[in-house]
Amino acid sequence: DQLEQQLDAARADADAATSRSEGSNELFASAYPALMEGRLDGKNVAVVFLGPADGSIRAEVEGALADADADGDAPARVVALDVPVDPADVTAILEGDELLAGYADEGGDLSDLGRELGRQLAEGDDTLWGSLQSELIEEQSGSTSTPIDAAVVVTTWTAPEDADPDEQADP
Question: Which of 20, 54, 72, 168 is the most exposed place for a label (fewest CB within 10 A)?
Answer without folding.
Answer: 20
